[in-house]
Design brief:
By secondary structure, this protein is an alpha+beta fold. The chain has 2 domains: 30 residues; 127 residues, Nuclear Transport Factor 2, Chain: A (Roll). The protein has 4 helices and 6 strands; from the N terminus they run αααββαββββ. The chain has a 6-stranded mixed β-sheet. The protein is globular, with a radius of gyration of 23 Å. The termini are far apart. About 17% of the residues have low confidence.
């Protein structure tokens, strides 16, 4: 029996030593690619993305197609909560025509991560409004992707929304 305990203790010790080596490596690898960006610059860029998110929210609520046009990249593509694809032109036309109109758009739980010239934003949106399909309301989790273009401006290239279902709620 003493040999088995000694072997088990050695095995646990090796696993702990391996963990002490691998965990810091895994944590460093999993960090967003912003390590080269000074802290002050990260804060400024985060503030810039937050302002763009506020501009987007305001443009949606006010039907401001000029502001929305300035935010979206020419090759912008959205995936709605119903799974449909929507180009920049379709997004602007829906906003312009009033087919999509929001009366409430409250944002919470915003997280912004940076990967070089890409910013990934996730949030929860509580909405009320109308679409071509009728009234819409509820909580949605969304992801918006910004890319800094060659002129240094951040543009939204992608958006996806998913309805947050309450426990026991069906379609």
């Amino acid at each position: 029996m003493p040999i088995a305990r000694k072997h088990s203790a050695m095995h646990v010790g090796r696993c702990m030593a391996l963990g002490l080596v691998l965990v810091p490596i895994a944590l460093a690898w999993a960090q967003p690619a912003r390590a080269g960006m000074p802290r002050t610059q990260r804060h400024e860029v985060r503030h810039e993305i937050d302002q763009l998110e506020d501009t987007w929210r305001s443009a949606i609520l006010k039907g401001n197609t000029a502001a929305m046009d300035a935010l979206l990249a020419d090759d912008y593509m959205a995936i709605s909560a119903s799974g449909t694809l929507q180009s920049k032109e379709q997004t602007l036309e829906n906003l312009r025509s009033g087919r999509v109109h929001f009366t409430t758009l409250d944002i919470s739980d915003r997280k912004v991560r940076f990967y070089g010239t890409t910013a990934l934003v996730t949030s929860i949106a509580t909405i009320q409004g109308t679409t071509a399909d009728g009234e819409i309301s509820g909580n949605y989790r969304y992801t918006r992707v910004y890319v800094r273009n060659s002129q240094g401006a951040w543009k939204v290239v992608s958006f996806e929304a998913s309805r947050i279902r309450e426990p026991g709620e069906h379609k």
